[in-house]
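Re: beginner question about structure tokens

> Can someone show what the tokenized structure looks like for a real chain? I only ever see the sequence side.

Sure, here's an example I had lying around. Input first:
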Amino acid sequence: MSLPVTAVIPNWKRDEETEKLLSGLDAVTTIVINDTGRDKPIYGRSIAKNQGLAQVKTPYVWFLDTDVVPPSKDAMERAVNLLDSRPDIGAIGGQIVNGSCMVESLGLFFLGKCSAQSKGFSMMETECIATCNLMCRTRDAMLIGGFDPLLEWGEDKDLCLSLLEMGKRLIILEEFCVLHYFSPKGRMARLDAVCRFYADHLRLWRRHR
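And the corresponding structure tokens:
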């Protein structure tokens, strides 16, 4: 049985990774936003995610990157059940990097700070969830206005900060964490990425300080 979830997946030059990811998402509806830019993305990640969000018809939206290994269907069901039963929870997610679950705090000027968490914690509250793996209520994402189209970096922090300002809690669910293997075609591969990273985080700080 299909879950009431739509996965939104931006894709730029990662067709093989996208196909591999989709093979593990039979239990949910999927929307892939393909960016056709040759040298750099035309849309940017925020615009791509907003295009996907606008097409979602299910109660829950699940933002995913292409370079992750998705959790099991049982873990997907657990995440849905938590959101069903806990209106105080705004989003669920988590990622595993080098064998450890990464817990992200907002850090100074919202630049972010990650720490590794040993497995076995089951469920943990956090300040931020990366949109390589974030599930939330579609109505909440729409109420916030989706993602700031001017942000190429920190769009997930912007979403999480808006959820926190709504009084919602952010939860890392161990069994729902994805294995994030980081594609060599990621955003940091571009030369202009560092300058844009700091400019976008300054925009975040001004909005949410």
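Each token stands for a local structural state, so reading them left to right follows the chain. The helical segments are 15-22, 45-53, 73-85, 138-144, 155-165, 193-208.
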